[in-house]
Design brief:
single chain, about 120 residues, mainly alpha, 7 helices, Molybdate transport system substrate-binding protein
């Protein structure tokens, strides 16, 4: 079972994701960033990555994230290569990024602060 499948049916049958993405309904719209058409008043609702929407100045309000089971979540991982020239500095950077002090700054960009799973 795929954990980060973009659509519930894609979890059971990966070919469904292809059919959904290429459906006629989805392909009829213009390819314009959601934040722009919502910001200029052309549309009342848009869906986009939070980290791409928050920096755009607009009079519209960000109301929240789509529930995780209904979206495709991008997860990032960090590691330190065994042959790095600066292992201590790399360790310090990762510790800073995972610290409670950095959590507010990271969340302010629209990203979720890292967890230590």
């Amino acid at each position: 079972m795929m954990e980060d499948a973009p659509h519930p049916r894609a979890r059971r049958r990966p070919h469904d994701a292809f059919l959904i993405v290429h459906s006629p309904v989805l392909s009829q719209g213009d390819r314009v960033p959601d934040r722009l058409v919502v910001a200029n008043g052309e549309y009342h609702l848009g869906f986009q990555q939070v980290s791409e929407s928050l920096p755009v100045p607009t009079q519209h309000q960000f109301v929240g994230k789509i529930p995780e089971p209904l979206q495709s979540v991008t997860r990032y991982a960090a590691h330190i290569p065994t042959r790095t020239r600066h292992p201590q500095e790399a360790r310090q950077l990762l510790q800073l990024l995972a610290s409670p002090e950095a959590a507010a700054d990271i969340a302010g960009t629209g990203l979720d602060p890292p967890n230590k799973k």
